[in-house]
Amino acid sequence: MKESTVATKAMIAILCLGVAVYLAIYFVQGWEEDVVTTIAYSYSMNVGREAEGLLVREEAPLAGSGGYVDQIIGEGAKAAAGDPVVLLYSDPSALATRQSIRSLEAEVEQLQYARSSGTQNTDAARLDAQVISSIVGLRSLAAGGDLTSLEESALTLRSMVFKRDYAYGDANAAEQLDQLIADKQSQLEQLNYSLGQVSKTVFAPSSGVFSAGVDGWEGVAVPSMLDNLTAAGLSELLKQQHSPDPLAVGKLITGSTWYFAALLDGTDTGLQAGRRYTLTFSGDYYGQVEMILERIALDEEQTLAVFSCRSHLADTAMLRIQTVDVVTQTLEGIRIPRKALRVVTEEETDEETGAVSAVNRYYVYTVMRSQAEQQEVEVLYTGETYYLVRPVEPESSTRLRPGDEVILNSSGIYDGKVVR
Fold this sequence. Notes:
Layout: H1 2-31, E1 37-39, E2 41-56, E3 59-63, E4 68-71, E5 78-79, E6 84-89, H2 93-118, H3 124-144, H4 150-167, H5 171-197, E7 199-203, E8 208-211, H6 231-239, E9 248-253, E10 258-265, E11 276-282, E12 286-298, E13 302-309, E14 321-337, E15 341-349, E16 356-368, E17 371-382, E18 386-391, E19 405-407
Antiparallel strand pairs: 1-19, 2-10, 2-14, 3-9, 4-6, 5-8, 6-7, 8-9, 10-13, 11-12, 11-14, 12-13, 14-18, 15-16, 16-17, 17-18
Helix pairs in contact: 2-4, 2-5, 3-4, 4-5
């Protein structure tokens, strides 16, 4: 009886121990962190060097006298020799007169279009729909208090009404339109005559690109100085300040090629003369410009790089001293979060010398079906929150690819572990 009792107690104890172990494992697994993953994707980035520099052009200021300036052509527009580029007014009211002339010229152009279109076959139904649409639009502008385009909208409506009269055979419409055009042209002649009494025209002395930005560097930052310019010389130039000519009303850029003399820290820049580089502007002008590196001059601690370009002249006409990024390399790879990368230090023995050295190898774990799979990668670039990597064996069938699901957990993950 006693032996049976002891055996029963032993079996109960073993059973309780098994249940305890089972519950312990259950609770430990319940507290384990779930697998956190994200998607790796292709990423391309530019790696460059920051540089401060000076834009150099063949340019000359346009002299003029007069208190009020009105541009005839726009910023960065091309002008032939003898073309009018600027109007100078001695009377402030001339600016309002000039604006009236522009409005009248636009009216005459629209009326003449309506006159010529009216003599052609016109779909009367379509014109009716356009007239109704214009009336609704005009009413909306008036109701909303938007008077910026009210005059133009009214003129458009009037032109379409005349065209509609043509379509329905109104003989008086043509005469009314001709009379209206004649009246507008008469007003234009009077305004132009009065404007001519208080204005003076500045003509382009040669062909080039017009710019209203005059900064005083004209005649200082010229292409002829670049052959003998040094890094130290450019550093001194960037410290200078120049005042624009008070009588200048703009400038004309006569050269088709402009230059950017850049100053870079250090002498190991990796730049090569004759190659094309992309310069990224991010100050007064946002954009990328592809330029040719013409020459390099090394100093003790700095490098002078002179770039040239035959495009984007109108975009950069008003720029002078700028800070840019000179793109030296474009990297393409797979972007992953920093938490996804594992570093393993291994010892390697040199076969010739027998020397033992520590080598770091980098791995990423991806989810393949339900298991974790280890992928060896090479780190191309380290960002604040990410790494740019590529597979060590790019031809392997199990390599890391864009779109793979990478594991972010930093511990408890190994090759072949069932994670799902």
